[in-house]
Design goal:
This protein is mostly helical. It has helices at residues 13-31, 38-48, 55-66, 71-93, 109-113, 115-136, 142-156, 161-170, 178-203, 208-241, 247-250, 256-260, 262-279, 285-300, and strands at residues 2-4, 9-11, 102-103, 106-107. The chain is globular, with a radius of gyration of 19 Å. The two termini are 20 Å apart. The relative contact order is 0.13. Bound molecules: geranylgeranyl diphosphate.
C-alpha cells in the first residue's frame, strides 16, 4: 500500500496491478483468436499469452487515466504495445540474434515452432499491433489515433528498438562508454515504454503539455527499467554462484554496475525514481498514484 500524503489517502498497488493484468490478458486473448492458419496464430499466442509482467500496457492505461480518459480508450493501444514488445522478444531470442532457448520460463518461440514460424509470428504481431490501434480505438478523435500510430512506429523502427538492437550487436565484445550504453538502453527499452505512456495520454485526451510531461516521466522510467535489469543480472548471478562478483561484472556485456559500480548503480536507480516522481508533481496526486507506484515497482522488482 502506497501512502498518498498529498491526497490524504492510500493506493493499493497489488490489487491495481492484478486487475489491470486481468484486463490486458483478456483483451490480448480476444485480439488474437486461434483461427486459420492455425499454426501462425498458435505461435503468436504462445509468446503473447506467456505471462509477462504487462508493465508497458499497464503504463499505457495508467497514463490515459492520469489525463482523465476512460481506460477503455487506451486498451487497444495497450495491447498493441504488448504485441510489439512480444514480437521484439521473439526476434531477440532467434539464433541469429541472442540465440536463447528460454523466455518467460518456457522454451523460446523458435524452439517450439521453428525459426521460420517464429520470424513470421513476430512479423504478424507487429503488423497486427498497428491494425489493432487503427481499427479498435473507439471514441477517440482520428487525429489522436494517427498521432498514437506515429508514436508507436517511431518507437519500433530504425530510430527505436531496431536502432538499439543494431548498436547493441555492433558493441559486442567492444569496450563501450556510458554514452553508447545509454543509447542502447534508451532505444531497446525506453522508446517503447515512452510510446506506451505517451499513447495512453494522447488517446486519453491529454493536452500538449501533459503529453510532454508524461514523456519525460517515461524516459526516467525507461532508463530505470534497464539500470534495475543490469543490477538484477549481477545480484542474481552473485547469489547463484555464491561469489562476490556477478557475471555481468566480468562478462563482455556493458552494464551500469560494470560501468559505475553496484552501489552507484543503485543510487542512480533511486535518483531516477525521484526524477520520475517529480515529473508527476503537476498532476492530481490521486490520479498520479498508479504511475508513481509503477516507477517504484520497476525499481524494486526482482524479475
Ligand atoms: C522491433 C522490428 C523489431 C525488431 C526487433 C530484436 C529487436 C529488434 C530488439 C530487441 C529488443 C529487446 C529484446 C529489448 C529488451 C527489452 C526488455 C527490457 C525486455 C524485458 O522486459 P520485461 O521485463 O519482460 O517487461 P516481460 O517478460 O515481463 O514482458
Amino acid at each position: 500500500v502506497l501512502q498518498l500524503a498529498d491526497a490524504g489517502g492510500e493506493f493499493r498497488f497489488e490489487e491495481y496491478m492484478a486487475s489491470k493484468v486481468k484486463l490486458v490478458n483478456a483483451a490480448l486473448d480476444s485480439a488474437v483468436p486461434l483461427r486459420h492458419p492455425v499454426k501462425i496464430h498458435e505461435a503468436m499466442r504462445y509468446s503473447l499469452m506467456a505471462g509477462g509482467k504487462r508493465v508497458r500496457p499497464i503504463l499505457c492505461l495508467a497514463s490515459c487515466e492520469l489525463v482523465g480518459g476512460e481506460e477503455a480508450l487506451a486498451l487497444p493501444a495497450a495491447c498493441a504495445v504488448e504485441m510489439i514488445h512480444t514480437m521484439s522478444l521473439i526476434h531477440d531470442d532467434l539464433p541469429c540474434m541472442d540465440d536463447d532457448d528460454l523466455r518467460r520460463g518456457r522454451p523460446t518461440n523458435h524452439k517450439v515452432y521453428g525459426e521460420d514460424t517464429a520470424v513470421l509470428a513476430g512479423d504478424a504481431l507487429l503488423s497486427l499491433a498497428f491494425q489493432h490501434v487503427a481499427t479498435r480505438t473507439g471514441d477517440v478523435a482520428p487525429d489522436r489515433v494517427l498521432r498514437a500510430v506515429a508514436e508507436l512506429g517511431a518507437s519500433v523502427g530504425s530510430e527505436g528498438l531496431v536502432a538499439g538492437q543494431i548498436v547493441d550487436i555492433a558493441s559486442e565484445g567492444v569496450d563501450v562508454d556510458a554514452a553508447v550504453l545509454e543509447y542502447i538502453h534508451v532505444h531497446k527499452t525506453s522508446k517503447l515504454l515512452e510510446a506506451a505512456v505517451v499513447c495512453g495520454a494522447i488517446v486519453g485526451g491529454g493536452g500538449t503539455e501533459e503529453v510532454e510531461r508524461v514523456r519525460k516521466y517515461a524516459r526516467c522510467v525507461g532508463l530505470l527499467f534497464q539500470v534495475v535489469d543490469d543490477i538484477l543480472d549481477v545480484t542474481r548471478s552473485t547469489e547463484e554462484l555464491g561469489k562476490t562478483a556477478g557475471k555481468d561484472l566480468v562478462s563482455d556485456k556493458a552494464t551500469y554496475p560494470k560501468l559505475m559500480g553496484l552501489e552507484k548503480a543503485r543510487d542512480f536507480a533511486a535518483e531516477l525514481v525521484g526524477r520520475a516522481k517529480a515529473e508527476l508533481a503537476c498532476f492530481d496526486a490521486e490520479r498520479a498514484a498508479p504511475l508513481y507506484a509503477l516507477a517504484r515497482y520497476i525499481a524494486l522488482r526482482h524479475n
